Amino acid sequence: MTIAKPPVMEPHQEAAILAGALPYLRRYAGDTIVVKYGGHAMGDPELAQTFGRDIALLKLVGINPVVVHGGGPQINDMLKRLDIKSTFIDGLRVTDANMVDVIEMVLAGSVNKEVAELISQAGALAVGISGKDGKLITARKLQRTVRDTDSQIERVLDLGFVGEPVKVDPRVIYALSGSGLIPVIAPVGLGEDGATYNINADTAAGAVAGAVHATRLLMLTDVPGVLDANGKLIPELTAEQARQAIAGGVITGGMIPKVETCIQAVQAGARAAVIINGRIPHACLLELFTASGSGTLIRGE
What we know:
single chain, alpha/beta, 8-stranded mixed β-sheet, 16 strands
């Protein structure tokens, strides 16, 4: 993807843009913004650099960003190099004991540090951690069932060490943010049984946003947001309207779990969640610092 360079502006135009952002800077001053980072925004080098600068900017103007990242393509590359084959069920990677070690190595190791470095190079200090650090994310084995179409009998799927958050203890996030640092979180959790669990990054971000009562959860995706039956962007939904859109077939496919994550986040304590297109440069800034925003906002009832 080629990113167009912004046009050269006169000094007074630049000053006008900064002045226009002032009401939004005041609105979010001191607030916590959780950003789920992944998809094309993560894989494109130019977009990655832009993302790092934008997150650094949020911190430098008095907002407290928290980043939760994915890393599916990087995991796929490492598993391929190690000749480990992956199996997916309903979009979730079946994860055995050997595979979860590789996933933790990639997510909490190389990817986590690369994301933190992007932000630190831009002028803010970011610290990479995983959900296991400070017992940030306590997880349990994810239970999924499937119904046989002929017999209508349900059976339990064994996804191995795929987990879901049970509890988020935000003290480590508060400690880092309060010290002027930006937490960058890898979605790996620790079970009560001492096992390591691979957690979907969207799910982890939603749980973190709820626990810290984030003003916004920004879900960077590869689509503009939630579209109606005519393919037009829906700018805002209540949680109940989002549920109805799922039940009515307006929201389908891979957008369903993303919207459900947003609903769960606002029910758990986040003020609102927004699904935005991470392929657009400065997507986070457009959402926070412009009147119209850039995606679909989901708020409580």
